[in-house]
Structures are given as structure tokens and as C-alpha cells.
Amino acid sequence: MRTLQFQGGATRGSLEGDTIRVGSALRPSYYEFPVAADLFTAGENVLRLRKTSGSWIAYDALGVFAAQ
Fold first, then answer.
1. Are 46 and 62 in contact (CB under 8 A)?
2. For the chain, what is the domain count?
3. CA dist 68 → 34, 37, 65 (Å)
4. Is the Cα torsion angle 61, 62, 64, 68 positive or negative in sign?
5. What is the pLDDT of residue 7?
6. What is the dihedral of CA 33, 36, 37, 42, to 10 degrees?
7. Please, are residues 64 and 35 in contact by the beta-carbon 8 Å criterion?
8. Residue 14 belongs to what domain range?
């Protein structure tokens, strides 16, 4: 299990939906970290996300990539 701390944003920003707009209240953030290959099995694997504090969070992508 890993705990991540996301930067706070603002409701107005989520309604605008554009982090590059001048004056946007959106606060983009991302995390990259290694995950051991032996945690994955052939077939379906499940990633569970649980929010334990704060109000809400929106995300648009999760990715798993092989190390190069």
C-alpha cells in the first residue's frame, strides 16, 4: 500500500477543465513510482484507489509501463 498526497485545487478550476488557461485554479499533479513485476499475474489485475481524506479528486489516466 502506498499513500499519496495530492496538491489541493479548486472547484472553479474543475469546471474550467484546462490547466494551461491563464488564471486557471486547476492544480495538475502526477506520480511515478516502480511496482515490482511479481505483483502482476497473467490475466486481469486490479488496482484499488481509496481516498482517505479531503473532499474529492478527479483523474483522467492511470498507466502501467514496462521498465526500459
1. no
2. 1
3. 12, 13, 9
4. positive
5. 67
6. -100
7. yes
8. 1-68
Instruction: Write out the three cell numbers for 44.
Output: 486481469
CB atoms within 10 A of CB 25: 15
Q: Please, what is the end-to-end C-alpha distance for the chain in angstroms? A: 24
Q: Please state the length of the chain.
A: 68
Cell of 45: 489485475
**Would you report the helix, strand and coil content of the chain in percent, each value rounded to 5?**
15, 0, 85
- H-run or E-run covering 16: helix 11-16
pLDDT tens for residues 12-59?
A: 555 666 666 777 766 667 788 888 889 899 999 998 888 887 777 777
